[in-house]
Design brief:
8 strands; single chain; five-stranded antiparallel β-sheet
Length: about 425
């Protein structure tokens, strides 16, 4: 028995068929060589309309010159009315679901998540430009090449919409399909935004969704299509901008994080018992009259003070007749936004830094303090980005204010601990 015969015998004992929405993906030996096939579900292959849809989708795939698009050839059976299977281009592929079940640690591999998402977004944008939607980004419908985990897609859901077979195609994977598609409505680019958002959630399930992505994914997977990003290109832009903002914030606060750890270690290991009577507060650039006018964000801006969306107020105001825009009013909005940011971030910084500067942490040794400090700075970066967006502050300005507040609170807490010596 040669090697291929041994493999074939093993596969007879253990089926290599993998369930996907349209049927089963598997390898078949033909003339001594193994080829990739998708064998369709009986309820699909016997449907003449399905054969028409499949031929149309085959033409669409042929027009996509992208390595992430798998191409295929329909296979017909003599005497049969429909198409029972397709032969897929050569390669060693497995589904994303298989990969993460077999090698769950792959999500921590450098570049895996970033490249997978980037490649899927780019391919989906190309499909949408041709009026085609993938629709289903379930783990059982997204493939990877086994040797390098390069992502692949094959059949496109919108090509089969007129079958009205959503219950059959998406049975068991409904959570990855946009609600309007499950209701039988025509798929749109917003449907792909939803599917991609759910797929990104899946990829991050084991390690946890990065904080700075949560609001973007929440919008992408909104039940109401109109509440989502209008296009995948818009979705990609939002992801890119948020990632850039997060990196910028991390860079901006990294110096103060290092200083916090170094000074904190010195303070923890060789405490200074000198009494500190006074710590100069950060200069407050907001004029008091702006804050003493009985300003109430919940009434003037239509949102609660702890989540004031000043940006929306400014946007709405600027959409009025430009000749009547009062620049003073705009500056007033911005000043109040800064005041809200300062108040909210100070509260968060006080809470977070209290977990660093306390007797338990300070007396726990160097590693205890380093771990607490690193965790604190990561949380403060996330809060700075979140609150900056809510209050419509430019990123650079919010980073500067955040650094000032962190430094002020850090000095005060050190002084308070010195007094307690």
């Amino acid at each position: 028995m040669n090697y291929e015969e041994l493999v074939e015998t093993r596969d007879v004992r253990k089926s290599n068929k993998v369930k996907m929405p349209f049927g089963y993906f598997h390898k078949r030996q033909i003339d001594g060589k193994y080829s990739n096939f998708v064998e369709f579900l009986d309820e699909l292959s016997d449907n003449i309309l399905f054969a028409e849809c499949l031929k149309k989708d085959c033409e669409v795939a042929a027009q996509i010159s992208d390595r992430h698009q798998l191409h295929f050839t329909p296979n017909t059976e003599e005497g049969a009315n429909g198409i029972y299977a397709i032969a897929v281009e050569p390669g060693n592929y497995l589904t994303m679901g298989q990969l993460l079940n077999e090698v769950p640690s792959v999500v921590a591999q450098k570049g895996f998540l970033e490249n997978t998402i980037k490649d899927l977004l780019e391919l989906t944008i190309k499909l949408n430009e041709k009026g085609v939607q993938q629709v289903c980004f379930a783990p059982s419908n997204v493939f990877v090449r086994k040797n390098d985990y390069d992502v692949r897609l094959i059949l496109h859901g919108s090509s089969f919409h007129r079958l009205g077979a959503e219950d059959t195609l998406y049975d068991g994977i409904e959570e990855y399909i946009a609600p309007e598609v499950l209701r039988g409505e025509v798929p749109t680019d917003r449907s792909d935004v939803y599917g991609l958002g759910k797929f990104i959630e899946y990829l991050n399930a084991s390690s946890g969704m990065p904080f700075y992505l949560k609001s973007i994914i929440k919008k992408a997977t909104a039940e109401d299509p109109e509440a989502r990003y209008a296009t995948v290109a818009e979705f990609r832009k939002a992801l890119s901008q948020r990632k850039a903002t997060f990196k910028s914030a991390v860079t901006s606060l990294s110096a103060i994080a290092i200083a916090l750890i170094i000074v904190g270690l010195f303070f923890a290991l060789t405490p200074d018992t000198e009494m500190v009577e006074f710590v100069k507060p950060v200069e407050e650039p907001i004029s008091e009259e702006l804050l003493d006018e009985g300003f109430d964000p919940s009434t003037e801006l239509g949102a609660a003070a702890d989540s004031a969306t000043i940006a929306e107020a400014i946007k709405d105001y600027q959409m009025k007749d430009s000749d009547k825009i009062d620049e003073k009013k705009i500056r007033e909005f911005e000043a109040k936004g800064e005041a809200i940011f300062r108040k909210q971030f100070s509260k968060e910084a006080e809470r977070v830094l209290s977990g660093v500067y306390n007797n338990r942490t300070m007396n726990g040794g160097q590693k205890s303090f380093e771990d607490a400090s690193s965790k604190a700075m990561e949380e403060l970066v996330e809060k700075q980005i979140e609150l900056s967006e809510h209050s419509a502050l430019p990123s650079e300005k919010s980073q500067r204010i955040a650094s000032e507040i962190i430094e002020q609170i850090t000095e005060r807490k050190k002084a308070e601990m010195n007094k307690g010596e």
